[in-house]
Design brief:
The protein is of the alpha/beta class. The chain has two domains: 5-98 and 285-302, Rossmann fold (3-Layer(aba) Sandwich), CATH 3.40.50; 100-275, Rossmann fold (3-Layer(aba) Sandwich). It has helices spanning 14-23, 30-33, 35-41, 58-62, 82-87, 100-116, 118-126, 153-164, 188-193, 214-220, 237-246, 265-269, 284-302, and strands at 5-8, 25-28, 45-51, 69-73, 92-93, 145-149, 168-172, 183-184, 197-200, 225-228, 251-254, 273-275. The two termini are 32 Å apart. It binds NADP nicotinamide-adenine-dinucleotide phosphate (NAP) and 2-keto-D-gluconic acid. The site of 2-keto-D-gluconic acid has 10 residues, from loops. Residues 75-76, 96, 99, 103, 149-155, 172-175, 201-204, 207-208, 211, 229-231, 255-256, 278, 280-281 line the site of NADP nicotinamide-adenine-dinucleotide phosphate.
């Protein structure tokens, strides 16, 4: 029997691509590169392999009459029109849990980096500034107040780590968690008013677009720090640029941006900002586990078995 044909819609990690190429006939981003060629293969496409940042919209789905499933390499699937897929009976899978610890680690790392100014201190030593005088004092993290916007799998793993730093922990979600010992606030603005560090770890998409706006940043205040490991869309980026460059907040540490891989010049120039290139899950170990799970979902579907991790 011939191998199923799938469309890869993002530049995927080479090890994952190799596994896909062994098991399927892979069309790598053909829809973006060659419209004529895509028109000839589109009717045969039975699966999509996407990344967490991929766009799979209704217009693309409409061109794929034989599509049976979409597998996302990532826990976030905000770029996929899940409603349009569901209307066609096309299930979507993602890679929850296997990256939780990794993303939580980077969230804590970013919080420490911006508070203790670790990248700035590194530059200070490299640039030969140390002999001219000491590095300015920084902000203590242990015992400080942490607010988590989104207490899901990753938010909880961040809270577990923060507890070991003796931080007092509070959170906001749409639904209060009865199983959580942490103080609940009904909005990001109310939470921001009560904390030193505001950690954003919700899904992206329409439901959270601009959730961290100018009002939330004003509530966080001139001694407060924002950390975003969720999606760039969750933060009103122009409001954030204004906040970090005018002292509305003390600083920010960001792994995600509104228009990746483009980062505004104002953020790149700001000394009170730490920037990483959407790398929270980016270790050999975790990307390997994500690839295995994303692949296993495709394999299960085409073997007629139940999907491992369908999105809710
Ligand atoms: P999860 O378990 O589904 O948790 C999501 C949390 O966000 C839940 O507590 C949810 O609670 C809350 N939430 C959703 N909408 C909200 C809103 N409007 N206001 C406040 N809270 C809201 O997901 P997860 O596994 O922790 O992953 C979270 C997200 O992290 C992913 O969707 C992805 O976007 C991001 N992520 C980023 C990276 C990276 O590389 N930087 C890596 C992995 C994941 P309620 O439903 O009660 O509101
Ligand atoms: C990945 C992510 O960087 O899981 C997510 O939602 O954003 C990240 O783990 C991404 O999916 C890989 O391209």
């Amino acid at each position: 029997m011939s191998k199923p044909e799938i469309l890869v819609v993002a530049k995927l990690w080479p090890r994952y691509m190799e596994a896909l190429q062994d098991a399927f006939i892979v069309h790598d981003r053909t829809h973006l590169q060659d419209a004529e060629q895509f028109a000839t293969i589109a009717p045969r496409i039975r699966g999509i392999a996407a990344s967490g940042e991929s766009r799979v919209d209704a217009a693309l789905l409409a061109q794929l009459p034989a599509l049976e499933m979409i597998s996302v390499f990532g826990v976030g699937y905000d770029g996929v029109d899940v409603a349009a897929a569901r209307a066609r009976g096309v299930p979507v899978t993602n890679t929850p849990d296997v990256l939780t610890e990794e993303v939580a680690d980077l969230g804590i790392g970013l919080m420490l980096s911006i508070a203790r100014r670790i990248p700035q201190a590194d530059r200070f030593v490299r640039e030969g500034a140390w002999p001219k005088g000491p590095f300015p004092l920084t902000r203590k993290v242990s015992g400080a107040r942490l607010g988590i916007v989104g207490l899901g799998r990753i938010g909880q793993a961040i809270a577990d780590r923060a507890a070991a730093f003796g931080m007092s922990i509070a959170y906001t979600t749409r639904n209060r968690r009865d199983d959580s010992p942490y103080a609940y606030h009904p909005s990001a603005e109310a939470l921001a008013r009560e904390v030193d560090f505001l950690m954003v770890i919700t899904p992206g998409g329409a439901g959270t677009r601009g959730l961290i706006d100018a009002k939330v940043l004003a509530a966080l205040g001139p001694k407060g720090y924002l950390i975003n490991v969720a999606r760039g869309s969750v933060v009103d980026q122009p409001a954030l640029v204004h906040a970090v460059t005018t002292g509305v907040i003390a600083g920010a540490a960001l792994d995600v941006f509104a228009d990746e891989p483009n980062v505004p010049d104002e953020l790149r120039a700001a000394d009170n900002v730490v920037l990483t290139p959407h790398m929270a899950s980016g270790t050999w170990e975790t990307r390997g586990a994500m690839a295995d799970l994303a692949f296993a979902n495709l394999q299960a579907h085409f073997a007629g078995k139940p999907l491992l991790t369908p999105v809710p």
